[in-house]
Specification:
alpha+beta; Outer membrane efflux proteins (OEP); two-stranded antiparallel ribbon; 7 strands; about 65% helix; elongated
Length: about 450
């Protein structure tokens, strides 16, 4: 029996490193895979190398992404802890004591006088809970599903941060262009105001005409101030994303922006299965399901194999003699006959949590479909509005050109040309806003589909 136990200990010590190595290979974080969450292939469709470089910097510097990676590592360790409970446990609980008996003790006719002695006990203890009901296996599976939930949360963080960053980036480009147009408007309005004052001074206009043009100028100045503020706020936000404090923030010029064409205008409802929140709810149902099984197994008896091998002596010089060898082994059953209903209450608790997880899953399906449909409608509307703004801009360009031609033949004044140019610039501002809104709507659609490359969806339809 002793030889069998020693053989078991030897085999256990030999296989333990292999378990640890396998566990490390399965659950250790792989930093190379996380860059896939950036989905650079999708962002390359915008034909903006500066944006790509910023996203790579975001991957390296953003603190939210770093914390998401740390949460993955934390969850991997939780899985490792549960997995370790499936394996035998070994511990060394040695101690050295000295007993002092100051009074005479009697055991029937046997008399033990006062004495003092040492006790050297150096046992190696091994225990293993026989998982005949699969309870510990279910606990490990539950921890693995929680790990999957954390991984999807990490993917959601990547999708959200990159999408929000890109949206702010394009809004900043819009601010640059709108400020440029706004400055032109202000200069033209100043010129209109001067000419209107000149007409008034020469009796060709009224004071109301002058006041109207002054009010328009103040409105243009207010709008410029708001754009300046928005620009500063956007730059500051983008720097926070990148965890940097540089004075300059590089971005592409508005004229180099490219719209995405031929994106799908219809999506299958199955697209939501790619969303991180959908996969999280799926994993949560499995996790709570395993917890319910564990709660059921807690109602059954448990069995633990227990054994000790080591040395036990009362004198140091006898410690390594064969007579001081210590060995014992047993199978210890464990069953709670009465626990005040605690285990039954725990089982019902897990069942309620399972029903709650099912409800959350069903609700998530509805909300995800709604978000995808809303983003799709917004994309369609933004695209239509941009097309209409292009048509209107072309008409205004023709009108402005005709007004210039009228001025050349004496049928229009210089003030009429300035008014026409001002209207043209206002139409250009609307075209700029609609173009950026169209770009941002594609980002919102990308985010709603769970970071799916929309061109791949279009190809598969």
């Amino acid at each position: 029996m002793k030889k069998s136990f020693i053989l078991f200990l030897t085999l256990w010590i030999m296989i333990l490193p292999s378990y640890s190595k396998q566990d490390k290979q399965i659950y250790a974080a792989n930093n190379e895979n996380t860059i896939l969450y950036l989905n650079l292939k999708w962002w390359e469709n915008y034909k903006d190398d500066i944006l790509i470089e910023h996203l790579k910097e975001l991957y390296q510097s953003n603190y939210d992404l770093k914390n998401a990676q740390l949460k993955i590592k934390e969850s991997e360790k939780l899985v490792k802890i549960e997995f370790a409970n499936e394996l035998p446990q070994m511990s060394f609980d040695g101690y050295i004591t000295r007993d002092f008996r100051s009074s005479v003790q009697r055991y029937g006719d046997m008399v033990i006088p006062s004495y003092a002695q040492n006790n050297f006990q150096l046992p190696l203890t091994v225990s293993y809970e026989i998982d005949i009901w699969g309870k510990n296996r279910f606990k490990t599976k539950s921890a693995k599903e929680y790990l999957e939930m954390v991984k999807e949360a990490q993917r959601a963080t990547y999708i959200s941060l990159t999408s929000d960053f890109a949206a702010n980036y394009f809004n900043l480009i819009k601010c640059d262009k709108l400020l440029s147009l706004q400055n032109e408007l202000i200069n033209i309005q100043k010129e209109i105001l001067e000419k209107t004052k000149y007409k008034y001074q020469n009796g060709l206009g009224t004071i109301n005409d002058v006041l109207r043009e002054e009010k328009i100028l103040t409105g243009f100045n207010e709008e410029k101030n708001n754009l300046d503020e928005k620009k500063d706020v956007l730059i500051n936000n983008l720097k926070v994303y990148l965890a940097k404090n540089d004075d300059n923030f590089e971005r592409i010029d508005y004229k180099d922006l490219k719209l995405l064409n031929d994106l799908p205008c219809e999506l299958n409802s199955q697209i939501i299965e790619n969303r991180p929140d959908f996969k999280q709810k799926e994993a949560n149902i499995k996790r709570v399901g395993y917890d319910v099984k564990v709660a059921r197994k807690e109602l059954l008896p448990g069995f633990v194999i227990f054994g000790q091998i080591g040395l036990n002596a009362y004198r140091l010089n006898n410690l390594f003699k064969s007579s001081s060898q210590l060995f014992n082994a047993a199978i210890v059953p464990n069953f709670d006959f009465f626990a005040s209903g605690k285990k039954l209450a725990f089982l019902k608790l897990k069942k309620y949590q399972y029903d709650e997880a099912i409800n959350d899953y069903q609700k998530t399906i509805l909300e995800d479909i709604k978000e995808v449909n809303t983003s799709l409608y917004e994309y369609k509307t933004a695209k239509k509005n941009y097309d209409e703004s292009l048509k209107r801009l072309n008409l205004e360009n023709k009108t402005y050109k005709l007004m210039q031609e009228k001025k050349e033949i004496g049928q229009a004044s210089e003030l009429d040309v300035l008014y026409s140019k001002e209207t043209n610039l206002l139409t250009k501002k609307a075209e700029v806003s609609n173009k950026i809104n169209c770009l941002i709507s594609t980002i919102a659609l990308y985010k709603a589909t769970g970071g799916k490359n929309l061109y791949e969806i279009n190809t598969n339809l």
